[in-house]
Amino acid sequence: MSARGPASGPDRRQETRALALALYTVLAWSTVATAFKLALRHGDVLSLVFFATLTSAVTLAGLLAARGPTATVGRVRAVLAFTPRDLVGLVNPVAYYLLLLAAYDRLAASAALALNYTWVLVLAVLSVPLLRQPFSARLGAALVTGYLGVWVIASGGRLTVFSGVDPVGLVLAIATTFLWAGAWIFNTRASGDALENLTRQFLVGTVVSGALWLVFSRELSAPALAGAAYLGVMEMGLSFFTWLTALRLTRRASRLTALVFLSPVLSLVWIHLVLGEPARAATWVGMALILAGVALSRRAR
Asked: How far apart (Å, rounded) are the C-alpha atoms in residues 239 and 139?
């Protein structure tokens, strides 16, 4: 059998398109931590979660409609065919974003970002009992490395003294990692169309977060609406679609997934430039350790 030659013109264009979509998604995700803090200056947690979830649900529904008019009625029925499994929307987006925004409200954006990124480590741990993946020495080293980074951030670089972050904010940020990883595994194991499943999930989240907003908040302002809309598109709706499309187009998924490591680094840059947060050495060292742990966990899996 002859060796495979260079990619043909159509294949090259497809790979270029996949790379462009992946880079866009990584860039969009890198702005989210800064957007969280800016939005929280103008709205409370409940209002931001509700309107961001609503925006995301509308965006996802629009993406479904954009697939074309073929079998539109059947597609609508599929989206509205709710089952008990769609109650995962109570976890993500409702519980997850309530805790995440509350954590950002208490912590510096750079600290909240780094702590939340350990969801990949939690995912690796939960994959052992739930997906029956083996626990290896490499995974153990990943956990030690990653959570050493968490401790560096939490202690402000003074490893024997806990003084770097608000303890409640720390607990909230760590809790979000379990919610996100659990929802990720649930969605991975769910049958059916991924976009339809996610749309139903966010419709459930919209109803529940809307009820919470009506009962406990009712706060509303134009800047808060703008911030929530940005988060609903860039964090939740459109970015999910562009990332999924990029992975579907490419034949080099490992190259694209490696780009995800750019997102937290770019996030720290935006946080410093836009929010004016000082670039603390402990945060950068902690983030580096967390990313090293994430890289090890990915190789372990």
From this structure: 29
